[in-house]
Amino acid sequence: MAVSSFIEKLRQSITQESFIKLSLGNYQGTENGLKQIHVKLVSIKRELHLSFTLRYKTKDITKNFAVEDGLLQITEYLSLGQFKVATLFTANANVVCQMNKKGEWSERTEKATAKKTQAMSHDVQKQRKIGSANKPYLHALRLTDQNGEVYNAAQDKWKQINHYVELLSSSLNNLHSEDTISVVDMGAGKGYLTFALYDYLNNELKKKAVVEGIEYRQDLVELCNGIAGQAGFDGLHFSQGTIDAYEASCKLDVLIALHACDTATDDAIYKGIQNQAKLIVVAPCCHKQVRRELELVKAKNELDFMTRHGIFLERHAEMLTDSIRALILEYYGYQTKVMQFISDAHTPKNVMIVAEKREINTEKQQEIKTKLQELKVYFGIRTHYLEKICGF
């Protein structure tokens, strides 16, 4: 009886627009790792839905239901005793439905403690720039099952893919080209992000784009080409090769290199500068070249106390290396942004440099040259690899 009364009050709160949120706690079911569920209202394609966030020990999973389906799901959870307590937060009161040790449900009303939010946007959906997960290439890459549901073990990768496209969405949307947009992704690996980028450009932004993934491992090249063919992605192709050996066969609009090790990031940036790419995106990995310079010279300055400790020296080398990279890109007329990037699980590196082509300013070039020289003298760097290959 108490459960039925609780569900009816939940239904009324939604109808009367006083509903704020619902929590289900004290889980006693059989699903491993599940702790609690939080429910909120969202608007999807202008229709109300109940959005369930299932909180596990190590991850969160979101599922969306039409309102009536969501109410049925909540009723089932409580009727089966899978959750022992449910709390409804409304603008007027909190309603608690709880099962005691005898298996009996009771209901009580408490003072309202939650504030009603202004918007009811579907924030999870907004983050998914590539849209639905129910796509053949995602299944072929073993991120989703046959029904388009993301595997539990692939949740982090799925978030990374969407965050990656989200970070680049503004820059990609600003690309103006009457012709086909040409993209090269250097060090594509298994192609998760390469496929997502192609999908986003062609199917979400409706821009005609061809994407080439460069990967040294031939088995991954063959795998990705096979998946691209099965998905009908005619403008996506993977080639075996290295960053330093790459030669563009046509104009290059976008160059991407994620987690290219040490000076391979510089090689990628140089290729982009050479080809006057409209957009250069790198997520650097390893910063050995500048660290070796710092260790060799051991310059005496006001900050030398920071580099006595290995971990600080490493971080210092990272910041210095990428700051110089950003300056050199600005020298060649690029507007740069440095942001945090959700990194691959196998590396802690999470900095992304996004550079958009603008006009070259000769006065600013001289200022940058002076700044670079001052930086090198102050920190005891004889040369930066990107500076060297650019011919400074």
Automatic annotation (TrEMBL):
Keywords of the record? Methyltransferase, Transferase
CDD domains found in the cross-reference section: AdoMet_MTases
Q: Do you know which SUPFAM superfamilies this protein is assigned to?
A: S-adenosyl-L-methionine-dependent methyltransferases
Q: Name one GO cellular component term.
A: cytoplasm
Is the keyword NAD in the record? no
Q: So which residues are the signal peptide here?
A: none
**InterPro entries the record matches:** Methyltranfer_dom, SAM-dependent_MTases_sf
Determine the domain of life of the protein's source.
Bacteria
Any single biological process term in GO: methylation
Q: Where is the Methyltransferase domain?
A: 156-292
Q: State any single GO MF term.
A: methyltransferase activity
Q: What is this protein called?
A: Methyltransferase domain-containing protein
Q: Which organism is it from?
A: Sphingobacterium nematocida
